[in-house]
């Protein structure tokens, strides 16, 4: 018994250890006790149960209710104190920065080494602390806020925590990146605000950094700085010694930027929060070139003025207003001589906006310009553009060497206007996605670092650079490499059948004559009946496999069976006996030239019914084709995989429920992902054979047509667009219907409808 | 019984309670411990619990980081300006170029742009001095430059200069090593401290530490170097090139080995490697650890200790076992049957394995920390390789296994694209290097990342043509735009063709009727004067007549397509709608074919009616106007001159060019078969076709072209595109293209 007690106590202690904290201490007794009880009765349990058979119900009800009670009790215990705590947090939430603990820096406290220019991710970054994780996401820890003062009590920074840095840190802490567990953190962000070097005391800030509990020579620490350097020479990176810390800096030059280590960020423009500039559709604007910077070097201003003289109205050269009464508004006004313009609204009136370097390379105006959808003309030699590691600036800006300032008019005039519109749209999109707030800037920075640590899960070029409208309208085909696969592996014919054995056997015999057939796969969709015995099947010289399905579903025909070993799949119904071997072989040859498309025989068309205001299915003699029937069609096995696992919405279920339209669904799927039309081969218009009488009447049936139209409408709404592409051509053999001896033609036996 | 039941109930209640606490309790420690850790050992270790939540919401008004009044930059600048202390930007640039030299060179500080602006991007190659032996690879590099459109023989014209001295192998122990390079280089009269020079290098440093030192002072010269480490790489100035072997072909090169996209995309092995393990010297830390990951099933990582003569002396405990395992597998077999190929650093950061894996469509898994990957300035390697970290070797298997099959499919195709676009020959490597530098020099007309990283690649997409991607035939799908729905007809009127001007005017009328025609350009190259004004038919589209010129400047037209030269197919509209589906190909009528004549060991040309074709005549064809530009600007003068002199073969050359770009055959549409006969009567070609020399010339042309391209780019097709209802037994009234039916 005592042994029992001991062991149960140990178990309880384990529980308590797991629970942790004094709050749970009282529990140990109860738990220990009940554990003891359970152990005690547990030993006699097995003998008891058989005798209780008759009263099972009562017993189970009792057991169930007890478990339920236990659950409720646990739940209450778990969440009750917790909810109080979070309420407390809520109330203290509105705290003041002045409540942050004060830290006095000893005068002789150590200073980190200066930033190491040779740092790279593989030398200065400790990748072990990021670890392997299934989400491929780094964890970021933020140091709690502290107020640092020197020995005399003077703060190390004139502003302390700035609004922007506060926003940035809140954004990180609200994001998926955040962890409050410093031991699990991959990246550590100090709460010391170094956004603006001018408001800092460099030496003391460095000391404060070195005092951070996990500083460790700055390893895996990330600092955000937007205004680096100070007079007179304005260095292009933060002057605060920071050892191995990563720097997200605005205004890097190619000499201070450690490629693949630092992150170049924009200089945030506080105006973007103040002024709401609605997006303006791209197009020609009143002014061609606009310069609105106020503190330009006189050399530059001189050159711009010359530009203005040469090109007159097309160039607008603004400066700050000298005659306005001083005040906060002055930052929102710009003047040309006595003319006053609203800033930043005036930016929307110009196609190109000049962004010249100032004392610093990074300029906040870049953000305003992008917001206005004005194409920035960036003249800042050696400047590393914001987020240049992932953003393709060539699509949103024009970068011109400073030397060429006098030539910008000619250079910009040479840009096609469609490209200007493209850049205007792109510029605005960059602002929307990456410049608009401190949150956007901060999270983009973290994502870039995340991409470096998990490069195999990095966001793609398209994800970074394509505005939503392009993402929506563009296609990136999964089979993008131009390839013409060799003839030799041939194709696998997949015959879907239910019980028409006789017809099936005829189909098999016919297809087996096609030279490039590699394998025949019969998908037996009838669960109530077994396929015929092996001996009864036609003898053919390629392997024949029968797959039995679990349910009679149309989707089974498009399942990516392992038995399909070739790229090319011929889907064929068990009643398609009219196709000649030449037709099939030619179909395969055409597929080889278009392996990313559906290649089929009878073509169909979708039409917009203006009266009804919806899509209509058309099978009459038309001059156009947008679908091919999959009663017999070649396609890439990849589309089987897509159909089975990636079909959007409930289309698959719809098809199985209606036992119809699987071919339309396939046409939608392929057209949507490749952006290409199917290829209709040979003149064939219908799958019709002399002896199949009314069975094929299915296609003619009026209700059938209505249902097919419905399918198109349904699928179009699921895809959110009409992906089908209409073409006016079909593929025939080169010498089709040519006046040429038939026996010399490769595919003479083609031409019936 | 009752008591027992009660006990049982109690028992289960207790059990469930314990269970729930134990399970539920897991959450409690997580929160409580983190709360303790929030203070992180700092002064605020035991604070109010509320202070330990993520990042508090502060209620006080916080100052902006850059208050507008003292918008520090502006204010400071003005102040500085007033004081006159702020140096002029020009001065600042000059200071930069004097400070940032040698190892800190950048284009801004070490490169002289002025020569390039004067004469365009021209490259000069030093003549080889007698007695200087150069390696085969370097000879290939130099001849690739000399054969390119950038070459100039006048150093005064040059924007970039390339040494005639072999700098490829700077390993002192190598037989190829050129001694006293320092003196020789300094002695070059044009050296000028290395300014605007480009130096190619494959190997640097030697045993045991293999530094990246070239053994001579390169001064301000740019380096195109293999296996370059990020520490030594001057971004935006140097170019990282791949390591290639002596056998790497000069031009053309083998195609990628991927023939088809198998589904599922997995191969027999997941990850393979076979290579040396160095017992002495650097470069083997990772390779020594590979056996930890090797599982002899789907992850096969093999090393051998056998290298050099005295490996036995240094051999360690694992050597015998490793060597035995090593001999069990065949490298080629593994390479082509593996999804991923490990590319760990060797003595140097890069290895031949990289290109081998790329060609074999085996996705490279890089384990070479700090290696600046080849052409990393423009190629986004994440789309074609898995960039691993040597420190995380043990995670590599699980990393590659976690990669989704869609991604594998994409990675694999991208390896093939990159291999064929930039790596398959020395010429491509050299041209890519030059194009990258050209992009830097003319920054505002440079390629976007999309142009470099998607088919057909940067060498075929010339930004000088247009900076708008929609002006090229390649990017419609990626941008979600459509080709311009109009074409420009270019009618080429040459002397014997127009005995009377009637046919031309007839053609003009016919073409102008097309709904898709935007304008017509007539190139009048006849001895005869233009027909009188009143004889010109009235057309609804503008007609431009250019006299005495042979070529159309490619910027002439806003429209997407080109319809060239004479004969009059009635079905322009149909061909044009076909072209809209295949804007990157040539769509034409009469087709021709090529074949390999194994008796004569050369390519043959045939105009017989065959079941397949690989060219369409451009006498009447629709193609994107960009190809016009490419024809004029991409092809070397030698080929163009040959075509001009022969007055023949221009269509073959165009077909070669387009197929080299697309890797696909042209498209033939329904054609009037009597074409040849009717043409015979009136065209200049009549006489030419009849001429047996004409045919022989075309044969010769084909072989000349194939040797310049280094390979045969033409591809056969077996199909022709007809209107959907072509020759169908249905009322002609139902048919849209009735003209074609009557052919």
Automatic annotation (TrEMBL), chain A:
Any one Gene Ontology BP term: heparan sulfate proteoglycan biosynthetic process
Subcellular location: Endoplasmic reticulum membrane; Golgi apparatus, cis-Golgi network membrane
Organism: Scleropages formosus (Asian bonytongue)
Gene transcribed to yield this protein: EXT2
Catalyzed reactions per annotation: 3-O-{[(1->4)-beta-D-GlcA-(1->4)-alpha-D-GlcNAc](n)-(1->4)-beta-D-GlcA-(1->3)-beta-D-Gal-(1->3)-beta-D-Gal-(1->4)-beta-D-Xyl}-L-seryl-[protein] + UDP-N-acetyl-alpha-D-glucosamine = 3-O-{alpha-D-GlcNAc-[(1->4)-beta-D-GlcA-(1->4)-alpha-D-GlcNAc](n)-(1->4)-beta-D-GlcA-(1->3)-beta-D-Gal-(1->3)-beta-D-Gal-(1->4)-beta-D-Xyl}-L-seryl-[protein] + UDP + H(+)
Record note on quaternary structure: Part of the heparan sulfate polymerase, a dimeric complex composed of EXT1 and EXT2. Could also form homooligomeric complexes. Interacts with NDST1. Interacts with GALNT5.
Function: Glycosyltransferase forming with EXT1 the heterodimeric heparan sulfate polymerase which catalyzes the elongation of the heparan sulfate glycan backbone. Glycan backbone extension consists in the alternating transfer of (1->4)-beta-D-GlcA and (1->4)-alpha-D-GlcNAc residues from their respective UDP-sugar donors.
Family statement drawn from the similarity comment of this UniProt entry: Belongs to the glycosyltransferase 47 family.
Domain Glycosyl transferase stretches: 491-736
Gene3D superfamilies: Spore Coat Polysaccharide Biosynthesis Protein SpsA, Chain A
GO molecular function, one term: metal ion binding
Keywords: Disulfide bond, Endoplasmic reticulum, Glycoprotein, Glycosyltransferase, Golgi apparatus, Manganese, Membrane, Metal-binding, Signal-anchor, Transferase, Transmembrane, Transmembrane helix
Protein name per the record: Exostosin-2
From TrEMBL, chain B:
Pathway: Protein modification; protein glycosylation
Organism: Scleropages formosus (Asian bonytongue)
Alphabetical list of Gene3D superfamilies matching this protein: Spore Coat Polysaccharide Biosynthesis Protein SpsA, Chain A
Main location: endoplasmic reticulum
Name assigned to this protein: Exostosin glycosyltransferase 1a
Catalytic activity: 3-O-{alpha-D-GlcNAc-[(1->4)-beta-D-GlcA-(1->4)-alpha-D-GlcNAc](n)-(1->4)-beta-D-GlcA-(1->3)-beta-D-Gal-(1->3)-beta-D-Gal-(1->4)-beta-D-Xyl}-L-seryl-[protein] + UDP-alpha-D-glucuronate = 3-O-{[(1->4)-beta-D-GlcA-(1->4)-alpha-D-GlcNAc](n+1)-(1->4)-beta-D-GlcA-(1->3)-beta-D-Gal-(1->3)-beta-D-Gal-(1->4)-beta-D-Xyl}-L-seryl-[protein] + UDP + H(+); 3-O-{[(1->4)-beta-D-GlcA-(1->4)-alpha-D-GlcNAc](n)-(1->4)-beta-D-GlcA-(1->3)-beta-D-Gal-(1->3)-beta-D-Gal-(1->4)-beta-D-Xyl}-L-seryl-[protein] + UDP-N-acetyl-alpha-D-glucosamine = 3-O-{alpha-D-GlcNAc-[(1->4)-beta-D-GlcA-(1->4)-alpha-D-GlcNAc](n)-(1->4)-beta-D-GlcA-(1->3)-beta-D-Gal-(1->3)-beta-D-Gal-(1->4)-beta-D-Xyl}-L-seryl-[protein] + UDP + H(+)
InterPro entries: Exostosin (IPR004263), Exostosin_GT47 (IPR040911), GT64_dom (IPR015338), Nucleotide-diphossugar_trans (IPR029044)
Taxonomic lineage: Eukaryota, Metazoa, Chordata, Craniata, Vertebrata
Family as reported in the entry's similarity comment: Belongs to the glycosyltransferase 47 family.
Function: Glycosyltransferase required for the biosynthesis of heparan-sulfate.
